[in-house]
Amino acid sequence: METQEEKRMLLIGEEVPDFEAVTTAGVIKFSQWAKGSWVILFSHPADFTPVCTTEFMAFADIYPELKKRNVKLLGLSIDSVFSHIAWLKTIKEKLGKEIPFPIIADLSMDVAKKYGMIHPAQSSTAAVRAVFFIDPEFKLRALIYYPLSNGRNMEEILRIIDAFQTSDKHGVATPANWKPGDEVIVPPPTTKEEADKRLQEGYDCADWFFCKKRL
User: Fold this and answer.
1) Which domain holds residue 190?
2) Which 3 state secondary structure label does DSSP give 93?
3) Of the residues 61, 106, 182, 197, which has the maximum number of CB atoms within 10 A of its CB?
4) Does the annotation mark 52 as catalytic?
């Protein structure tokens, strides 16, 4: 039977748990390693598996774009650091791709349980494909879970980071399917007086509560 710790799901807006862990870049204390940066923490089910291999190569491809956005990337699976190192060497030797970010070796499942990566209906010994978007205040901004059978979409991961950073910088929201350069949503009025003024403020408005603008 799973414990309450295993059942616990982190909630958007909460501060994420701190931890210390062995990684392919040495031991890290998360709060120190991540200080001042956004972080994408993601889990994969196992080393030396085909879907995970494609994902790691895809994460490596977007790594330079993440760095431009002040985002650190950190992987995790319930494998040993030796397994991680051997797998990364294989990816480089057989597929020609260098993996530039650290991977947590979580044999104890300590981090996986703290972050709700173990879903017993999928597996009690492997993490699902989880993605945690963590801001510089260590607050969880979004999380996405995928099953063991299906890989993630890197364009969506970059898009979400761009949306968060745009909202934070400009105090706006982003509509469905938003991409950088698209119109953003002006927060709706919260008083009748503001609502009366809204249609005269020069925005692209469908109605007083639904206005867009370009940045």
Assistant:
1) 171-213
2) helix
3) 106
4) yes
